[in-house]
Amino acid sequence: MSELASFHDVLFPLAVSFGATGGPERRNEIVALTSGREKRNTRFAHSRRHYDAGTGLRSLEDLHEVLAFFEARRGSLHGFRFRDPFDMKSCAPGASPTALDQALGTGDGTARRFALAKTYGAGPDAYRRPVEKPVAGTLRIAVAGVERAAADFSFDEATGEVVFASGSAPGNGQAVTAGYEFDVPVRFDTDRLSVSLRAFKAGQIPSIPLIEVQP
Fold first, then answer.
1. What is the dihedral of CA 65, 157, 120, 172, to 10 degrees?
2. Three-state SS for 185?
3. Which of 178, 156, 152, 176 is nearest to 166 (CA)?
4. Distant-in-sequence, close-in-space partners of 209: CB < 8 Å, separation ≥ 6
5. Cα separation of 155 and 151, whole Å?
6. Is 52 in contact with 207 (CB distance < 8 Å)?
7. Cα angle vertex 29, ends 27, 34, to 5°?
8. For the residues of 8-22, what is the DSSP string, one character each?
9. Contacts by residues 127-130 (CB-CB < 8 Å, ≥ 24 positions apart)
10. pTM of the model
11. CB atoms < 10 A from the CB of 212, how many?
């Protein structure tokens, strides 16, 4: 019996993820012109993250937990949450998120939805990354520098937007900011895990590739 792909709202084993390797990938096309100059174009608006969770395995217990997780996700069929060890907060790695960390937009007195995002860099060249999987209980929102109570807003998982409650829309010209911890939606980038118990005990780590997906 076949299954349709979906997103499982579960977290990849945390201890293993903190030992993973990986990061963002860009897809650019570079064409060398006869003049010697280059023509460069980007194929995708957003970067895509790749990880190898195999480097996070420390014990047979870790390996068993990942194998069980792989089976429960049916290999690459279902997506899941992954805690990026290098980039999982709206702020610097050693800091705690505050409601003023990231700019989401400016109110007009009517709009109640603002896309959650994280900005890298500054000025016109800054990159604005959509954040679709904030960690439950960590999302903080401020309007015009004043933090709002949790009852004033919610998060729409389907659209990746902060939604202000009726009657709580930010006023005209008021800055909307946010702080949070977040996960990356990923799937296994393989349908086969090849593991040798003897090799693992000897220190050879199996490759467990993960790739970012749109949930």
1. -160
2. strand
3. 152
4. 50, 51, 52, 53, 188, 189, 190
5. 11
6. yes
7. 165
8. EEEE--HHHHTT-EE
9. 127/47, 129/46, 129/47, 130/46, 130/160
10. 0.90
11. 22
Polymer length of the chain: 215
**67 contacts: CB under 8 Å, gap ≥ 6:** 193, 195
User: 60: Cβ–Cβ under 8 A, 6 or more apart, which residues?
Assistant: 200
Q: Residue 129 corresponds to which amino acid?
A: R
Cβ count within 10 A of residue 41:
9
In whole angstroms, give the CA distance from residue 95 to residue 101. 11
- How is residue 181 written in tokens? 């911890």
The DSSP letter of residue 123 is: G
In the chain, what's the furthest Cα-to-Cα distance? 65
Query: DSSP 3-state assignment of 155?
Result: strand
Sole residue written with tokens 């990880």: 51
The one-digit pLDDT tens for each residue of the chain (215 residues) are 567 779 999 999 999 999 999 999 998 888 988 888 898 888 888 999 999 999 999 999 999 999 999 999 999 999 999 999 999 999 999 999 999 999 999 999 999 999 999 999 999 999 999 999 999 999 999 999 999 999 999 999 999 999 999 999 999 999 999 999 999 999 999 999 988 888 888 778 889 999 999 76
Phi/psi region, residue 109 (left: phi>0; alpha: psi -120 to 50; beta: rest), is left
Q: Name which of 28, 27, 23 is nearest 210 in CA terms.
A: 23
In the block, tokens 């006869």 appear at 34
